[in-house]
Amino acid sequence: MTPLTAAFAHAITTTLLPVVTRAVAPTDMAEMRAMLERSSSETRYRRFMVPMPRIGDALLRRLTAAGSGAVAVALDGRIVGAAHYGDLDGDAEIAVIVEDGWQRHGVGRVLMRDIADRAHADGYATATGCILRDNRAANRFLDATAPGARSVYDGPYRTFFVDLSLIPG
Predict the structure, then answer these.
(1) What does the pLDDT look like over 21-76, one tens digit per residue?
(2) Whole-angstrom Cα distance, residue 31 to residue 26?
(3) How far is residue 132's CA from residue 135's CA, in Å, rounded to a whole number?
(4) How far is CA 128 from the centre of its chain?
(5) How far separated are the first and last CA of the chain, in Å rounded?
(6) Cβ contact 72:98 at 8 Å
(7) Is the pLDDT of residue 10 over 60?
(8) Which domain covers residue 69, as residue numbers?
(9) Least crowded by CB within 10 Å, which of 21, 83, 143, 153?
């Protein structure tokens, strides 16, 4: 499988600005850093599950490598969210982050649909991921965007498994 071989674009009009998704590219490094720096330390912790007081270059290279994910870009050119997936034992392990000021405006939903489409096009049938059990917003988001997800709870973590075809558009 070649990650993100299909060309997808999803668009939404939020209450803030129109947003479109596209594949991430190495040239997105500066904007990805800016988005992560605009995000609160809590948002970064909830995405990466480790404290992240600074954004390292190695992480940025991984997040902006060609074929590593998708970004949500606002009309003014800023990256306001990102979604990534990689292979985990034959499933697409997915993760989404949306900067604080854009949360609860539909950006996460359009990124989830985009990354599900990309993973499905690359031959994956199932997605998996892990969220913190006490992250109520992420748990509500998962329940809304991945109906039918099967979950396993282990300590502070909720690991989910979902058929990619069940993620609504």
Answers:
(1) 888 999 999 999 999 999 999 999 999 999 998 899 999 999 998 777 888 877 78
(2) 10
(3) 5
(4) 12
(5) 23
(6) yes
(7) no
(8) 11-166
(9) 153
